[in-house]
Amino acid sequence: MTDTEQTLRTPTPGDSAERPAAPAGPASGPVAEEPDPRMPRLAAMPAFVAYMGQGWGTPDRTAQVVPGAAKAAAEHRARLAAELPGRTIAVASGRASVRSNDTFYDFRPDSDFYWLTGCPVENAVLVMDTRAAKDPRSVLYLPRPAQPGDPGFFADAQYGELWVGAAPGPRDWARALGHGLEVRPLEDLDPALAEGNRDAQVARTLAELRMIKDDWEIAQLRTAVDCTVEGFAAVVREFPTAVAGGGERWLQGTFDRYARTYGNGPGYASIVGSGRHAATLHWVRCDGPVGEEEAVLLDMGVETHSYYTADVTRTFPATGRFSPAQRQVHDLVERAHRAGLAAVRPGRDFADFHTAAMDVIAHGLHDWGLLPVSVDEALSPEGQHHRRWLVCGVGHHLGLDVHDCARSSYEAYQGAPLAPGMVLTVEPGLYFHSHDLAVPPELRGIGVRIEDDVLVTPEGADVLSDALPLDATGLENWMR
């Protein structure tokens, strides 16, 4: 996915008072001061409350934790405590945003919170006390589910088990998470910490710690990439249906269904751009047709159940064969991509793979007669004329977030040398809009991006997504 400026916020927890519980019943609506007696509020009826508290067995409330996540989280907490001693740090899991009235978007825990806990519970807060250097204390505060005997069991649409299914409580999570993490009910939390108190230093420190992935994280990313490659294959098999009328949305739906079947879901809004739409960097509307003669840009990633995501892009000919103009563009992007990959090595500057790819792009565009200045002028800080067709960045960190570690300082993100354990994307492209009169007609409406996920190793780099070919002929053969 192309990198861009990120608007970041610190999520905060809530409780049942912050997200009003829905009245018991199939739908919510205005609550009258004097309700119609024919539609009584069930939670206000003592006989009904007593009846609903009886005759229930014990469902399976085992807390589901991704294997290895709790142990990795304990190690992450230790790293943070060593980096920020003498502090009280609160990190909240966040809560789902309102979609409409009393319906909400799917919840996904804050990435820093999950990195430190391995727990995906909404409205939870982790409090770390690092003042005792030899024995830092971590307490996870979780909301109690509403179980039989509690009126919220049937009246609370957020926590009532009759609404959301069997839900683990604090004791269940304590057993599942272990590794010295104390788990307590949310009501025990000091109100002063209830909203989380991550200041800029804590947020920056967490982002910079997360740049170096441990072995468990790298394994999660490998799984995400492998599933994504399989998802690409599932999408390509559906090209005939897309050309026959299903369009871009059929392909988007195919991948998103695959991602939800084999992972948590897509790691970001899947991009499917056919023809002229491929030149739009974040074409997430995916509401256009797929023409027989068009090239289709697919930028997609599976997010695992541990929330680590892949981010891979390839551009395919809709019916299996690139046109001469499409191949011309693809070949130049491929050369730029290979130059960028070659510059990902430990000790190299973050900017090296960007400048390596841009150098190839600028020379290629000059050879085509598209640059109004020399290559040297274009590549100078005062020029950048080649960026008319590549305004986005050429790569970014990858991990729990598709644009990972975005709260890092500039010095750590772009100023420090690449180091083993970093995972990056390399993604040059060329985007010729259909209304761009600065390019010849045969190039207008062609967009090509190639993106791979790359692990920096002690010896060099490991392209995690190399199961997908890079060259045009290889992609044509892979499609078959």
UniProtKB/TrEMBL annotation:
Cofactor names from the entry are: Mn(2+)
The residues covered by the Aminopeptidase P N-terminal domain are: 71-213
Q: Which GO terms describe its molecular function?
A: aminopeptidase activity
State its Enzyme Commission number(s).
Answer: 3.4.11.9
* Catalyses which reaction(s): Release of any N-terminal amino acid, including proline, that is linked to proline, even from a dipeptide or tripeptide
UniProt keyword Flavoprotein present: no
Q: Which residues form the signal peptide?
A: none
Q: Does the keyword Signal apply?
A: no
Name any one Pfam family assigned in the record: AMP_N
Domain of life per record: Bacteria
> Which regions are flagged for Polar residues bias?
1-10
Key words of the record: Aminopeptidase, Hydrolase, Manganese, Metal-binding, Protease
The top EC class, named as a word, is: hydrolase
The residue ranges flagged as biased composition, category Low complexity, are 19-32
Family membership: Belongs to the peptidase M24B family.
* Protein name (record): Xaa-Pro aminopeptidase
Q: Which organism is it from?
A: Streptomyces ardesiacus
What taxonomic ancestry is recorded?
Bacteria, Bacillati, Actinomycetota, Actinomycetes, Kitasatosporales
